[in-house]
Amino acid sequence: MSISDAILDILRDLISIPSHYPPGDTKAICAYTADRLAAAGYRTDTVSNTAPVDNVIARMGSGSPSIVFNAHVDTVAVSDRTLWDSDPFAASVRDGKLYGLGAGNCKASMAVQIWLAEEIARRGGPKAGEVVFTFVGDEERLGPDGLAYLRQTGLVTPDVLICGAQTGLQIITKERGVMWVELTTTGTSAHAGEPQHGDNAIDRMVRLVGALDRNLRPMLNARTDGLLQSTMSVGIIAGGTNTNAVPSHCRLEIDRRLLPSETVDGAVEEIAAAVAGAGEPEGSWGVKLLTGTKGFSSSDDAPAIAAFRGSIEKITGAPVREVVAVGASDARHFVDDGIVLLSFGPGDAHDGHKENESVPVAEFEPAALIQLSVIEELLGLKN
To answer: What are phi and psi for residue 47, nearest 5 degrees?
Structure first.
C-alpha cells in the first residue's frame, strides 16, 4: 500500500468518528488514536481536565530534545446538512480531493501524524531525545482543556512544537495572537411609544462601535509584520427584549488578531481608550477580556526551522514560500516558553470551516515525508 493510500484510510476512519464542537466530545476519536499508537509501541496516556474532552499523549524515546507533534481532533459542527454534496461523516474522494467534516481542519494533519508516528516506530524509534504525539480537543472553542491543559500540568514540555494545520506544505513560523473582548452598554428602559423617556443601550453601542471605527481601526490597518495584518472584527451583538421597549442592555463581542509584537493587555487598553472617545457617561459601558493569547515568531536560525525548510525544498522541488495563518493554532499556549513553534500540514486554510470541506490527496505523501525527514535530521532513527 502506498503512503498516500495508508493516510487516506486513516483519514476515512477519523472523519467517520464525530468530534464536532458543540458538544466537543473527543472520547471516541481519542480512543481510536490511543489504541493505534499503543499497538505501535508508544507509551500512551489519555487525560482529561473536563469531560467529555479527552486528550492523547503518545511518547517514544526519552530526554532532550523533545519534539512534540500536535493536532486537534475536534471540528466545527455541520451548520446546514443540505449544503453538503456528500455525507460530512463519510469521506468522499472526487477530483483529487477528499471531502468530509474536518478533512482539512484538522483531521488530515492528524492522519499524517498518525502515519508518521507508526513509521517512526517501524524504524525503531528515535536514536536521541524523544518524539511525542499529542491529539487534543477544545481547540475550536479556544478553550483551556486541550493543549493548554497539557502545558499547564507539565504533561508535555517541548523543545520544538509542530502543530498540524492547513499550510499547503509550507511552514508557518509567525502567527498572530487572538483575543475576544466583550463590550457592554447599559441604559434605561421605556415604552417604545415614548423613547425620549428612556436611554437606549443599543444606540449607545452603535456610538461606541463608531468610535472604534474612527479611533482604532485606522491604526490597526497600518500595522503589519510581513504578510501579517492586525485586525478587529465584531462577531456577536445582542440587546433588547421586545421591539416595543427601549433596551436597557446591549452586549457585543470583538475578535482581535494581534501581531507577535502586540500584547493582550495593550490591545484591551486600546479598545477601552477608543470607545472612551465616544464621550458616553462613565459607568454606562464596560470592556472585558474574555480570552486571549499573544502571537509568536520563531527564529529562522533554529535547527528545526532549517530542517523543515530543507526538507520542503528537497521533497517538493520548489522554494519555500511565506504562508499566513488564517486562524490561531494551539502553539499560542507556549509563546512564553522560549521554544521553537511552527505549524505545518496539508491543505489550504481557506478550505476549512465551511460546507464541502476538502483537502488535496496529492499532499498526503509529501506532508508525511517532509516531517519524517525532519525527525531523521533532528533525532535520527534506529533502523
So the answer is: -125, 155
